[in-house]
Design goal:
Chain lengths: 472, 110
């Protein structure tokens, strides 16, 4: 046995879980794709690229404390490692620097976080069109920003990044907000929860005020958003409709965002059952209150278990470990419950705010399910809405069959950029609930692997030297 | 066009080539960041229609920034940090091991 617990992902959930597991005396190995701990939210936190800390703001630097506790925890950290399979027996396979290796651990905690929801508008494949999260990643490391960009979509992360650009002294051409006014009314029903998270509301309102004061054109109620340009030189204009009129903006850089969704590939391919979550419009794993999945040796914590944000992620990581320590015989159920009580209360408080956010920033249907035939749904295999409609007309029953009909979802991203769109589209075309229409059947390896990487498993001399490789 | 807002002029740099052109970029840059910082918004052309694509998610989930690094194709540019002497080539269609790819057709947005 290599360790009691293997954790996948070094974001807030993974790091907090590692610290907690070490405190309970478990041996822990954490694998993460990035060269340094932090996940996406605290990316590069131990080596901040920006001299001016005001640009990213205090919520980012708050991650330093957790990263430090993680570094001092005695957890084995294998960085630059992509986990591509967890077998039903609990064996975990990963790849790093072109070689593969495996680990045997008694329990696995998947903390693989979130990714941005696909936003399949016409022209979203043009060079120069990126996600707003990508803009923030470039700010965190290595400290790059684009002048005169247009930000389009909706959601707290979008406004935060615009604000961060402001702090960095970067001109923003415009913010095109796609949130429909009707969302305010529906979100009012969640006001009770909103008030419990009022510190987030106050922070959000401050961002809006400062964005407005800076004079950035902020256009509300945007529909029919489209990136124009050509493949050779990339995006050159953005077209949209607002207040009943069509308008054009010149820009070489468009950042899109309409919320974040769980990164489900590893958990799904490992056999963890998922359900369609209609409030968050994504697939979320079936979990018990401790994050235990339908697979007895796999727990899931953090945004991969449903979007809750960084604070909730860390709490879920700790709670999952409380139960894992119990399962592994390191503490009694009574000890588990006693030490978890306070975290559970904090988690409830954190999550109370979510229904309000989910309702307020619920993306509208035309931004989830494209309207125009030529819109690319599967970027990798270049499958358009028209192709998918044609397949459905020929009797294609759901996302899995769609692969054989069109190759949709069969490219290197393995459905990460088209899966949610296809789930909703196929359900609509076949007049089924999304839950019944289902998702792609995902299988290992969950990230593309070349044969050389795989072959190293059979050649012990070529496999990763586990004592020295990428460990910190 | 992306510009450096780090205010860290003191960062050590490494020497890399992109499609044969030499560039000095700070240590810690990813390959995708190096493409963007040198004014290239495209990283490859697709194998289906040949259209240009550029870095999109920068967190390893979209596979748009696949490039050839030191002769090995299909490396994720956003997940690979630059190293001194690294040779990066933007990829044309399907990446083939050991076969230098034609680069001229990948638009670079400049």
């Amino acid at each position: 046995m290599d360790a009691d617990l293997a954790i996948v992902g070094a974001g807030p959930a993974g790091m907090a879980a590692a610290v907690q597991a070490r405190q309970l005396g478990l041996s822990v190995v954490l694998l993460d794709e990035q060269p340094r701990a932090g996940g996406q939210i605290y990316r590069n936190i131990e080596r901040p690229a920006l001299r001016d800390r005001a640009i990213l703001g205090p919520d980012y630097y708050a991650g330093a404390q957790l990263a430090e506790a993680f570094r001092d925890s005695g957890c084995r950290h294998i960085s630059g490692a992509t986990v591509w399979q967890i077998t039903p027996e609990g064996q975990l396979f990963y790849s790093s620097e072109g070689a593969s290796a495996s680990l045997n651990c008694r329990h696995v905690l998947i903390a693989s976080g979130a990714q941005e929801r696909p936003m399949p508008i016409p022209g979203w494949t043009l060079p120069g069109v990126m996600t707003a999260g990508a803009a923030q990643i470039l700010l965190k490391n290595p400290g790059l920003a684009a002048q005169d960009a247009v930000f389009a979509g909706s959601g707290p992360l979008l406004y935060l990044i615009v604000w961060q650009y402001l702090q960095a002294g970067i001109r923003v051409k415009a913010v095109l907000d796609t949130m429909p006014a009707g969302n305010y009314r529906s979100a009012l029903r969640q006001l009770g929860g909103a008030l419990r998270g009022r510190h987030y509301l106050i922070k959000g309102l401050k961002l809006f005020r400062e964005i407005k004061r800076a004079g950035i054109p902020f256009i509300r109620g945007v529909t029919e958003l489209e990136a124009l340009g050509d493949s050779g030189s990339g995006v050159s204009q953005v077209r949209y409709r607002a207040k009943g009129r069509q308008a054009l903006i010149d820009t070489r850089q468009l950042f899109l965002h309409q919320g974040v969704v769980p990164n489900v590939n590893l958990a799904m391919a490992s056999g963890c059952e998922h359900r369609w979550n209609d409030r968050q419009l994504c697939w979320t794993p079936k979990l018990d209150p401790w994050g235990q999945s339908s697979q007895s040796h796999i727990s899931i914590a953090g945004d991969g278990s449903g979007i809750g944000g960084a604070v909730a992620a860390a709490l879920r990581g700790r709670l999952a470990v409380q139960q894992i320590a119990c399962l592994l015989g390191r503490q009694t159920a009574a000890q588990r419950d006693a030490s978890s009580r306070q975290w559970r209360r904090q988690l409830q408080r954190e999550l109370a705010f979510r229904p309000f956010l989910d309702t307020l920033y619920r993306p509208t249907e035309p931004f989830r399910k494209p309207v125009r035939e030529e819109v690319m749904v599967c970027r990798c295999e270049e499958v358009t809405l028209g192709d998918i409609r044609a397949a459905a007309a020929q009797g294609c029953m759901g996302p899995n069959q769609l692969k054989s009909f069109t190759r949709c979802g069969m490219g290197p991203c393995q459905g990460r950029q088209c899966g949610l769109t296809v789930s909703e589209l196929m359900a609509e075309l076949n007049q089924q609930p999304v839950e019944d229409s289902g998702y792609y059947r995902l299988r290992a390896p969950v990230k593309p692997l070349n044969l050389g990487e795989l072959a190293t498993l059979a050649d012990p001399a070529a496999t990763i030297d586990q004592e020295t490789a990428n460990e910190h | 066009m992306f510009q450096d807002v780090s205010q860290r002029a003191d960062r050590a740099t490494v020497s890399i080539t992109i499609d044969g052109v030499i560039h000095q970029v700070p240590e810690g840059y990813t390959v995708a960041a190096a493409l963007l910082a040198t004014g290239r918004n495209a990283s490859r052309s697709t194998l289906v229609s040949g259209q240009s694509r550029g870095p999109y998610c920068l967190m390893g989930v979209c596979y748009e920034c696949l490039v050839e690094v030191d002769g090995i194709p299909n490396r994720q540019g956003c997940m690979t940090e630059v190293r001194d002497g690294m040779a990066i080539r933007r990829q044309q269609g399907v990446g083939v091991v050991g076969q230098a790819t034609e680069q001229q057709e990948v638009g670079d947005g400049r």
